[in-house]
């Protein structure tokens, strides 16, 4: 999985980091499995960074999006 950071560059995400991201989204941000499923379905049709897709579809707030990118910077 490739995600873009705030500066427009790209970060490569290992499978273990991706798993930890999903755990963070569900446990720390209380994002439902249904919301993640919606985002992942949309991502198949229109590839892009998962955090941005969650935000674009109104599944997370701008504050949550910032928290996700903060988490990704330290992951």
Brief overview, please?
This protein is mainly alpha-helical and about 80 residues long. The protein has a domain at about 30-75.
Overview of this protein structure:
With 75 residues, the chain is mainly alpha-helical. It has a domain at 30-74. 61% of the residues lie in helices and 8% in strands. The protein contains four helices and two strands. The chain has a two-stranded antiparallel sheet. Helix 3 (50-56) runs antiparallel to helix 4. The longest helix has 13 residues, at 15-27. Mean pLDDT is 86; it is low at 1-10. It comes from Nostoc minutum NIES-26. InterPro entries: DUF2949.
List keywords for this structure.
61% helix; 4 helices; 2 strands; single chain; 8% strand; mainly alpha; two-stranded antiparallel sheet; 75 residues
Shape: globular
What is the gyration radius calculated from CA atoms?
11 Å
| Major sheet strand order | 1-2
The ordered H/E elements are: EEHHHH
| N-to-C span | 14 Å
Q: Helical content, roughly?
A: 55-70%
**Biggest sheet architecture:** 2 strands, antiparallel
Provide the β-strand percentage band.
5-15%
Which ranges are low-confidence, i.e. pLDDT below 50, for 5 or more consecutive residues? 1-10
Category by helix and strand content? mainly alpha
Protein name: DUF2949 domain-containing protein
Pfam families: DUF2949
InterPro entries: DUF2949
């Amino acid at each position: 999985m490739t995600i873009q950071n705030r500066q427009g560059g790209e970060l490569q995400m290992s499978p273990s980091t991706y798993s930890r991201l999903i755990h963070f989204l569900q446990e720390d941000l209380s994002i439902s499995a249904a919301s993640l499923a919606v985002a992942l379905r949309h991502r198949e049709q229109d590839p892009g960074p998962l955090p941005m897709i969650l935000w674009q579809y109104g599944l997370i707030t701008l504050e949550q999006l910032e928290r996700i990118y903060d988490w990704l910077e330290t992951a």
